[in-house]
Amino acid sequence: MGKPKKTKSKAPVWNIRGAAKASGRNYLKQQVQLHKPSFIAILEPKSRGSKLEMFAKRLGYEEHFCCEDINRHIWLLWHPKVISVAVVEVTNQSISSIIEHQSGSMRVLASVVYGLGNRFDRRRLWQSLSRQAPLDTTPWFIAGDFNVISSWDEKKGGSRVSDGGMQEFNSFMTATGVSDLGYIGSPFTWSNNQSGRHRVWVRLDRALGNSHLLSSFPNIQVMHLPRVGSDHAPLLISLERRERKGANFKYLRMWKSHDTFLHTIQGVWEGRRDRDPLVNLGQKLKDTAKALGGWNKSTFGNRLRDMELKVASLEADLQASWGSDSAEALITELDESTRNLEKALQDKVTLLREKA
Question: Is residue 156 domain-shared with residue 113, that is, in the same domain?
């Protein structure tokens, strides 16, 4: 039995803008292999519900749900061996479910949202969600594309419209006792990707939670992943918990292609000496496994996180300097960093396949 280890239960929520697009599917598959989420919410699949079974199968998910007669905008996928999902309400703008971990360590009410573009349609969304607000201590999170902002800081570029919809959204949050869970990454989740003064950035996608969610998961985290394959950024919601898990050493073939792999091993074997050759051999094998474990994490783990944050940071810098002389150089750097991230994601997928 190993030492207590922090793990995270992760749930991507993404307006993919077309599940049939190869670029979106490939990016989602990479994120699934990287983060191993037990639950996924897909918004705007723009495909018939009959396509969901094959879509889920390609991603490796055994269970799925959609209700095309009422809501054609949201698909849910999950692993039944890890969690159970009981749908409790479906509207044309949301699907709410009770999600329970099979270990009994987690039970939450999860509402996935796709807000319609009209303020008066969204008013019905706020009303239906308000009726679902738990009256007990059930943790509740609401996540998705709300199609509205909570302040003018959440929009850059474009013209101002009536702030009535924004006020109604804020009133809904106050009345139900939910708050914004914040984010890591770019401050905006959607862009029209147009050039010059016509470009617009908006934070349309977010996650909200009640006080019981925050007390049950004080380290909850929402990351805005880079926008790849869609004009919306995926949200990656992480609920942290602890479990005991032992770790076994496993050699991965992709290591040998990295420049510092042999140097890491050499550093161990040129070190410690023991008078007993067998003791010396055993100790060096243990030291090698430990050194390669740390090297693997720093080379293929933390590096990927740093690259994701760099892409998000560059996009934020581009947003701040749009229209200035430095914008063109930032676009070039952002494009290069995005390509490097895609390559690193593919390397990570290869690593995870070898571990399987």
Answer: yes
